[in-house]
Design brief:
Length: 348
């Protein structure tokens, strides 16, 4: 690659795309990489501010920006994704299904720390729809050393154990059992407005109500109801209410007495601090069933801890205690008058 004056470019081969930007009118490529410049092209090149241009000279030790973008793309592209063709040295990735986006953050950081190259993405651990843009890749210069691209590829793959940096886990059509607790609901003192919220939210991710059991504040009965739903074939159990420290609130004890592994009772998220997450192992069927204890805020707040955890649970993405602890940064919902979640800081 070398620089020549545009007025002397007739017959030269462009080594990068030339873009024309007119504010409010257009931003598009007027000449593509590999275009042979004609005499008629020179005034056009000058009109877009190109008094000098790069022309291609073969160098077996260097990669053009489009070729380097292909290397970066290969580190990212996975099943359930589509990609664009290279344009101006960039390749974009798009979701090809409705699912949960997972990102190997260590590998992504390693690539972006290497210098002269970048991968920009949306946040992981959130749901994506078919057609959503996930990421874009490119190098910064027009050409880059082949050895450098091989080194970054080797380093990234060593971190991911040979897997792509990005993954989309499709949502499972889970059958969800709901245990509605509370004397006030059981005895008909108030209408149950909690369960319909849960049904609507699980439906967003392909889930459906398996069975709803309504009980008074009796921990033994709640324990038995959870185990009954699991025995009948529920893929997930949600307990609504009874999660605070009041003497009548016994749902955490009921979940514990099932023998499930309690991952976290309490979360660094507002609204939703009194949330409980557990996993019950049904060894005879080789199944692991998530059990969620939901505080009352899920019933009335626009967005809560449930909205951060639910997509992961619905995609069979196992949540650890460390994952829960990391929710503290970004775990404060600002409760905006107009909710734009997930296009906000909540859960980021």
């Amino acid at each position: 690659m070398k620089i020549i004056k545009t007025v002397d470019a007739e017959g030269a081969v462009l080594c990068h795309d030339i873009t024309q930007i007119i504010k409010g009118v257009t931003k598009d490529t007027v000449f593509r990489k590999g275009h042979v410049v004609t005499k008629e092209d020179i005034p056009v090149l000058l009109s877009v501010g190109k008094d000098h241009i790069y022309i291609w000279e073969n160098d077996e030790n260097m990669l053009h920006e489009n070729e380097a973008a292909e290397v970066l793309c290969s580190l990212c592209l996975n099943d359930n994704m589509k990609r664009s063709e290279p344009k101006e040295g960039k390749i974009n990735l798009f979701a090809d299904c409705h699912g949960l986006l997972k990102i190997n953050r260590e590998a992504l950081k390693a690539v972006n720390s290497f210098g002269q190259m970048m991968i920009a993405s949306i946040h992981g651990n959130f749901s994506v729809n078919k057609g959503d843009k996930l990421a874009g890749t490119r190098i910064i210069p027009l050409v880059i050393e082949k050895d450098k691209m091989e080194n970054v590829k080797e380093q990234a793959l060593s971190i991911t154990s040979g897997k792509p940096i990005f993954e989309i886990k499709e949502f499972k059509g889970k059958k969800v059992g709901i245990v509605t607790t509370g004397n006030e609901v059981f005895y008909g003192r108030i209408k149950d407005t909690f369960t319909p919220v849960i049904i609507d939210k699980i439906a967003e991710f392909g889930g459906e109500l398996f069975e709803n059991i309504v009980l008074e504040d009796n921990d033994k009965k709640v324990t038995n109801a959870i185990l009954e739903l699991i025995e009948k074939g529920a893929d997930m159990v949600v307990c609504t209410g009874g999660m605070s420290v009041d003497p009548d609130d016994k749902t955490p004890l009921a979940i514990k007495n099932t023998g499930a592994n309690i991952i976290s009772y309490g979360a660094p998220v507002l609204p939703g601090a009194m949330f409980l997450l557990a996993y019950y192992s049904k060894k005879d069927e080789d199944r692991t069933i998530p059990i969620l204890g939901l505080p009352g805020c899920v019933m009335y707040a626009k967005r809560t801890i449930f909205d951060l955890v639910l997509p992961r649970v619905m995609a069979d993405d196992v949540i650890t205690a460390e994952d829960m602890a990391e929710l503290g940064e970004g775990g404060l919902c600002l409760e905006c008058d107009v909710c734009v979640f997930p296009k906000c800081s909540f859960g980021r």
